[in-house]
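Re-running Rhomboid family intramembrane serine protease to confirm reproducibility after the cluster update. Everything else is unchanged from the original entry.
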Amino acid sequence: MAVATITDDPATVVGPRWWRPRVPATVGYLTALVIVTSIFSVLSDSAQSKVVLHASTNLHNLLQGRVVTLLSSALVIGDVGTAWLIMPLLACLLGLAELRFGALHMVRVFLAGHIGATLLVAGGLWVAVEFDWLPASVRWSEDVGISYGSMALIGALVFVVPNRLRIAWAAVWFTAAIGGVLLGQTFTNVGHLLAFCIGTAVGYGMIRTKTPVTRRFTRVEQALLTTSAVLAAAILLG
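Result of re-run:
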């Protein structure tokens, strides 16, 4: 009598793989954000303030050599209510970018925008403080969140939007980012503009060095793109 082996069952063969998400980097990062936000939400107001200041990529921390804040700042969203509203929108942006770019490149673009814009803003603030254009208290400003990395991904999506829409996509968000700077007049608004420019440069760089993903957007991807645009507008216009 034949005895079935474990490889005779197709479901068993693919069993170890069926649960693996198509967007592992997105799932991993969102999971970390949920865990951190859940812990953050049960802290007292004073404890929350301490966490935010400790994780911030402000001048004080960076000049003290706390380079770990370049990563920790992307795991803390200072307002808990905003965090829970933002994370579903962020999931759509990350998921779309990972589906189109791949996990590794999505992470690279996010970090390029997050870290690059942070360092450029910090450099500008340092000059402004040294020349007394801004008060020294700006050294301890709170600077955490996902907005820089998100805007870099919005810019990089120029790589996958249809060719006829690329200039419009870049122009609309660049104009909105400029508007954010003029209306908000904060270093964070400047950071959003810088991060978007970094991401757009990466996107156009990919167009020059890689074959763009020309397949049409599925309905799911169209919904993800629309939701990503909502997130970008919320970030830029506050």
